[in-house]
Design goal:
Blueprint lengths: L3 H12 L15 H10 L5 H5 L5 H18 L4 H14 L3 E6 L5 E6 L6 H19 L5 E3 L8 E3 L12 H19 L5
Antiparallel strand pairs: 1-2, 3-4
Helix pairs in contact: 1-4, 1-6, 4-6, 5-6
Length: about 190
Amino acid sequence: MSDYALGAGLATDLINTAPTARSSGEALTSPTALGRFLVEHGVEPHAMLAAPRLTTDDLDEVRSLRKELRSLVLAGDEISVVTGATELLTRAGAVPTLLRDSAGRWQWHLCTARGAPLADELGALAAAGFLGVLRALGHARFRSCASPVCDGVFVDTSKAGRRRYCMPALCGNRLNVANHRARKATGEEPA
């Protein structure tokens, strides 16, 4: 892995598939839904090569990982994030190495142990992202959604660091529509 935003973004999106963050309920309803999530995020773990069919055990383990990741985002201090992320890396047998990219440049990559379960591989990717964000951007980038009707969380990897919502297109839009309706109802909205 050469980009902490990839791991942090995957973690954010995975966490927010939970019914606690979505008014529409559970997004990972089946192994097929989990497979679609991985494809949408361009993630091809080694575990998928050994067992290309996802199982209900894979789904249960990823849902459990999702809870762990959420607790790390909500951790009140940096040490808790580092400790939890390091545990996730250790569990996957993750080892950093340098590999050449398609342009021949050396890039950091995170290799997990042969036979590591899918959830452990995803945990290692998320953990590396969390550690990268913590080092480069700081603990203040681990946030809860600003929408009063959402329990989602996220890791802000934006350049400006001003992200406020776990799912900006959904939570931010809902809040803007609610504010617009409130202004219109009180007559504050220009005609």
